[in-house]
Specification:
The protein is of the alpha/beta class and 202 residues long. The chain has a single domain, classed as Rossmann fold (3-Layer(aba) Sandwich), CATH 3.40.50.720. Helices cover 36% and strands 16% of the residues. It contains 6 helices and 7 strands; from the N terminus they run H-E-H-E-H-E-H-E-H-E-E-E-H. Helix 2 packs across helix 6. It is globular and about 45 Å long.
């Protein structure tokens, strides 16, 4: 279905006035943050309790000299190099069912970018229950070396979007390759951008 073209000046203005909360700043979240910022979203909340590890540098937007630093602080440093006028809120805490709403409240879109299935489920359940009008983009299935074309974006409800191939699992011994992780991150970022522009997946 054809969508009405948005003039670029209006598109950039809409994105600049929008905000996103990113839960998890690893392979998905760090790359989603950079893509949103480069696309024009200027207000980002970065949520992660962990530190940069050299074993993850193959797929995360960090550098060797940032190993050991808090992911939120290291990512903020990189994002400000991309766009000095970015408005960044850093939350260096582990998300729980009790605190997550306070972290993401007010964001125009929420992006789930964590590893554990239980934490993913908690994020979806709590956010859709407490903030049913806020779009949520989540991911499942991006490990391994199957075709990148298997990674898709599906709309589960009016406000919930699922990105991935829906079956591959890093816990099953499949590697996490930068190429496939980046494809999934791009899907998440683009789904968020479309919702910020008032567009919806079929």
């Amino acid at each position: 279905m054809d969508e009405a073209r948005i003039p670029e000046v209006e598109l950039r203005a809409r994105l600049a006035a929008s905000s996103a909360a990113i839960i998890g700043c690893g392979g998905l979240g760090s790359n989603v943050a950079a893509m949103l910022l480069r696309s024009g979203v200027r207000a980002l909340t970065l949520i992660d309790f962990d530190r940069v590890d050299d074993s993850n540098l193959n797929r995360q937007l960090f550098f060797r000299d940032q190993v050991g630093r808090l992911k939120t602080e290291a990512l903020a440093e990189t994002l400000l190099r991309i766009e000095p006028e970015a408005r960044l809120t850093l939350v260096t805490e582990r998300v729980t069912a009790e605190n997550i709403v306070g972290f993401v409240l007010g964001a125009d879109v929420i992006i789930e970018a964590v590893d554990g299935a239980a934490t993913k489920a908690m994020i979806v359940n709590v956010c859709t229950g407490a903030l049913p009008e806020t779009p949520l983009v989540t991911a499942s299935g991006l490990a391994g070396y199957d075709s990148a074309n298997d990674i898709v974006t599906e709309r589960l409800t009016d406000t919930v979007y699922l990105v991935g191939d829906l079956h591959s699992d890093a816990c099953a011994g499949l590697p996490l390759l930068a190429s496939r992780v980046m494809v999934a991150a791009a899907h998440e970022a683009h789904a968020a951008i479309r919702r910020l522009l008032g567009l919806r997946e079929p």
